[in-house]
Amino acid sequence: MTMQCTRAEVCVVAASDSWRGAGEVLAHAVGAVPAISVRLARLTHSPDLVLSDGEAFFMSDPPPLGKTAAEAGTVEAWTPYREVFDIVQSGRRRSMMGASQLDRYGNQNISCIGDWRRPARQLIGVRGAPGNTVNHRTNYWVPKHSPRVFVEQVDVVSGVGNDRARAAGGAAARFHDLGVVITELAVFDYGPDGALRIRSVHPGVTVEEVRHATGFAVDASTATETRMPTAEELRLIREVIDPMGLRAREVPG
Prior knowledge:
It comes from Actinomadura rudentiformis. It is a single chain. About 30% of the residues lie in helices and about 20% in strands. The chain has about 250 residues and is an alpha/beta fold. It has one domain (about 5-250): 3-Layer(aba) Sandwich (Glutaconate Coenzyme A-transferase). The strands form four sheets. The protein has a seven-stranded mixed beta sheet with strand order 1-5-10-11-12-13-14, with helices on both faces. A three-stranded antiparallel beta sheet has the order 2-3-4, covered by helices on one side. Helix 2 (about 30-45) crosses helix 8 (about 230-240).
């Protein structure tokens, strides 16, 4: 590693690594860092990933962030919105979503804060989170790690966590597959009990910092340091995928 990099770029390569081994699946990435990460994965270790422009086109050569399919990239197929549901239910998709709240077992809330009958804050609603989490692997991206996000119990369950999937059993558990949670401080995965644990902390971050920013006790017994980007990954991020520097809007500095 001969080039300096930013925290955002560390997050991008950590997210990119989460797509390894996905195969020929439709990649669903919400946010700048996830969108950059899936393009990076496609250009490096996972060439079979199917990318879209976020609307109706599959792209063999996706446009740089900030541009539409009409402005750049190479369209290879068109898919109407109704077909996305078939893709989800067939498991031929992988998602990296956001989360307004996450609990220790990976239950996700993007619906509202407070009592759902009289919420203190209305969010975007459950959207596709229930279907995503019971049909294919789902990862999460949290750009602002804090105890307000990582909570003991979510106010509304949008995405299904490990404890609820196991308790429900049957169809709810058959294809349920939570992968990793990536934040600007660390990478989490799930232990044998289904609870979040620290897989790695980013360079310059301590385990204690991560624990202090998390609203529940978290295991760090096997935590390592998140890897740094290679020179080629940095070139692709900076010159090809995100020349406008949109990654810094999610992770400044």
